[in-house]
Amino acid sequence: MLPFWIALQFLSSLPIRLPGMPQPQELGRSLLFYPLVGLLFGALLWVLNGVLAGSPLLLHAALLLTAWVLLSGGLHLDGLADSADAWLGGFGDRERTLTIMKDPRSGPIAVVTLVLVLLLKFAALLALIEQQHSVLLILAPLIGRSALLGLFLTTPYVRAGGLGQALADHLPRVAGKQVLLLSALVCVLIAGFSGVFAVVLAVVVFFWLRQVMMRRLGGTTGDTAGAMLELLEVAVLVGLALV
Known about the structure:
Layout: H1 2-11, H2 24-30, H3 34-51, H4 57-72, H5 75-89, H6 94-101, H7 108-130, H8 139-154, H9 162-169, H10 173-191, H11 193-217, H12 222-242
Helix pairs in contact: 1-2, 2-9, 3-4, 3-8, 4-7, 5-6, 5-7, 5-12, 7-12, 8-10, 8-11, 8-12, 10-11, 11-12
């Protein structure tokens, strides 16, 4: 179970403490448990949604979104902000884009991107609460973290060394594909037609974003992986709220 605890420690702000530095093979296997962490996040949000039943709708949605951000520690939002700055400031140049992504400072485009993404998440959550489709809250975190597994399965990692390289080099690929298929099946079992719609929408957005990364960088980085997760979650939530 060590790979699961590695995944949970990396993807969440929960107080998980590992006994030591994991081996590269364990880091690679931890990717297989990313969808399970997403399912856990979704289940926690679903439970919180039930606890908040009857509270004012705007406050209800705001508390759900706050819990969602706190669960992940804002990790992927940081990646989204860095990617947004780099894409605008990189002017189409690969090396300049990679350099900007390493800069911890956030420019105006990063702030605007974060505001828009969080606003869309809030509005979609509000719509799902009003429609009493609370079970659909489970899908977005599950799909978003499954997408990270899919990204490392299909896309070169372009920064040599570090955690991301270990994940990419030691990911069990056959098992990874099986976990992705199982994750899609879980979405369908949880939500029926809505689950099918969410998976199809996520696949379309995934391949579009992957193509954008390949054109600019020739692969992915930790920041662009985080950006993909956040954008997929938004796309799934908005799509489900509209159907």
